[in-house]
Amino acid sequence: MSFQDSPDLANRRFGGAVVWANDELFAERENLIKASEPVFQPYTFGHKGQVYDGWETRRRRESGVDQAVVRLGMPGVIKGVVIDTAFFTGNYPPFASVEACSADGYPSPEELTGWTTVLPKSPLDGDTKNLFEVTDSRRYTHVRLTIYPDGGVARLRVHGSPVADPRFLNFDHLDLAALENGAEIADCSNKFYSSPNNLIAPGPAAVMGEGWETARRRDDGNDWVSLRLAAKGIIRLVELDTSHFKGNAPGWATVSCADASGEWKQLLSRERLQPDTRHLFRVTEEYEATQARLDVFPDGGMARLRLWGSLTDEGRGLLVSRWEDRLP
């Protein structure tokens, strides 16, 4: 499994922000964390030159480096970074490094301290997705991209595993399937159009492309996605949201759960779904679960899956220790 299969913790869609850059004369820093892939239209000139879908600094005439600081939308453990120099050919930086820090509260960029290098100064290629694995196991809230000495970067992707701060969670009413709470996609049958990470992403989907959509099936099977819950808990409410999926919503769905022993129980029997609708289903049986699986019939798209419930004592302890063990 590639680190790129993990969610992008810095994504603007998940609440990420570029809070500071020392220079952004040619192209603004906010482009770094846009969810969309970079685009380029030749001969589109603004008053500062060719318009680029990325972050671009001026040509340096003195020694030094350029930097940008990103607040992660979902703090967590960084598994890898992608420094995408798409369409930057004669103006990309030859080297880059990435540092990370963990901050409590809401500090200004100037107040951030305790930077740790997670990617040492490394060579970059132009017009390329430059991939770098990260082995640090600590939880971080901010990253700092340094380019040597100047130039343009289209996108910065910070892939990893979110680690929730338990001080801000209600253990008795929690979305056990939420990325930001620590849930993870384990596997899925198909991700032709979009990543299954979208299914459990923060907030509602704004458009169809922010959900999970499979290719059209031409056989007798069905599509599915399995996930590891944030921690052991009891699911009491299932939310299946087909918002924005109109001619391509699944016709039916089931939801199952399992504990560590791998014994699967059905939470939701085969239910008919409506297009572009937020469906809520109460769960009458109480099962302690660490895993869940959504089956859609036969295929199609789902905006969000929410599994509301409460943590067991064991689940509470695991979620708290997961956070404490990863603090810098």
From TrEMBL:
Family annotation (Pfam families): Allantoicase (PF03561)
Catalytic reaction(s) noted: allantoate + H2O = (S)-ureidoglycolate + urea
E.C. code: 3.5.3.4
Molecular-function GO terms, alphabetical: allantoicase activity
Pathway: Nitrogen metabolism; (S)-allantoin degradation; (S)-ureidoglycolate from allantoate (aminidohydrolase route): step 1/1
Allantoicase domain: residues covered: 15-162, 182-310
GO biological process, one term: allantoin catabolic process
First-level EC class: hydrolase
Keywords attached to this entry: Hydrolase, Purine metabolism
Entry's family note: Belongs to the allantoicase family.
Protein's recorded name: Probable allantoicase
